[in-house]
């Protein structure tokens, strides 16, 4: 059973329509955190702002204009097809990390 606060005890700050604003997205900090998380994946090798799998580039990262830019290959190859991702908030960065982990799992299972 939900209880409500009597009106004479309510303050203006208790208005149920008020939401807290998310902190501003800082792409430079997100880039550093993402790189740290990717380095923890043992099968990837970090080279500057890119990550390599078995001698082939699979991910390139940069921070520009208030967003994190990522280029992720669809499949590792000598001339890969790249997919661009623009992360404008922390949720999109987490989604990118999850996608890299999924693809990495698939790529390492397929390679001999």
Describe the structure.
30% of the residues lie in helices and 26% in strands. Strands 1-2-3-4-5 form a five-stranded antiparallel β-sheet, covered by helices on one side. The termini are far apart. By secondary structure, the chain is of the alpha+beta class. The protein is built from two helices and five strands; from the N terminus they run H-E-E-E-E-E-H. The longest helix is centred in the C-terminal third of the chain and has 21 residues, at 90-110. It has a domain at 41-112. The radius of gyration is 21 Å and the shape is elongated.
Total helical elements: 2
- Strand tally is 5
Strand content: 25-35%
Mean pLDDT: 85
Overall 3D form: elongated
Give the % helix.
Answer: 25-40%
Strand order of the largest sheet: 1-2-3-4-5
**What about the largest sheet?**
5 strands, antiparallel
Helix-strand string:
HEEEEEH
Distance between the termini: 59 Å
Question: What labels would you give this structure?
Answer:
112 residues, elongated, alpha+beta, single chain, 5 strands
